[in-house]
Amino acid sequence: GRPVESAVISVDIGGTEIKGGLVGLDEAGKPVRVLKTVRQTTVRMSMRKFYAAIADLAAGFARAARQENIPLRPIVFVGQLGTFYKDGSLKRLVGVKKVWTDAARFADKEVHPARVIRRILEKKYGMKNFKVIAGNDSSAWTLFIVHHLLEYLPRGRRPWLRGQKVAAVILGTRLGFGVIRALSEDLGIKDIV
After folding, report:
1. In the predicted model, is pLDDT for residue 42 greater than 70?
2. 51: left (phi over 0), alpha (psi -120 to 50) or beta
């Protein structure tokens, strides 16, 4: 297989389980293999303790990368249940009341998961300059599926897909759904409807 040149941290927050991984990347930044995984039961707690536990998980992966002498890209990807606004904030009670004991205290757009996790990583672990990207878990899975579809589809078969909409149904603790507006070689969270 292709050699691992660097790694990123990825966390999937579900209503039943939290799964995290240290993902090895090749020279071009494409995933090669999962180097380390952690799986734990989602425990209901306050929002701040919840995101502190996610930051602890990410910091553990950063330690593992250092121990293995694998350069870590300063990015933490977080997919979680809930409805996100374009500014990265969460809609109050959609999904998160299952995991936060204090969800009712927060108003729409008041909680920004990426900011909360990034601050904890900086203050508690000295992980400065790390970017945390958080979004809906079904949207993240949809991007992952489409990236792999494009990677494994022969180049000659790709042109008919360009510009097409793609929908993915994700089965987890709950049913998730993601739609890509228009397929292209350069997809990101902005392309999810």
Report:
1. yes
2. alpha
How many CB atoms within 10 Å of residue 127? 20
Question: What's the CA gap between 35 and 48, in Å, rounded?
Answer: 28
Q: Is the pLDDT of residue 135 over 70?
A: yes
Residue 76, token pair as written in the block:
């933490």
- pTM (2 decimals)? 0.80
Written in H, E and C, the secondary structure of 117-186 is HHHHHHHHHCCCCCEEEEEEHHHHHHHHHHHHHHHHCCHHHCHHHCCCCEEEEEECCCEEEEEECCCCCC
* Separation CA 173–CA 166 (nearest Å): 22
Q: Write out pLDDT tens, residues 87-107.
A: 888 876 566 777 788 888 888
Could you tell me if 45 and 34 are in contact, meaning their C-beta atoms sit under 8 angstroms apart?
Answer: no
Q: Do the beta carbons of residue 94 and residue 83 sit within 8 Å?
A: yes
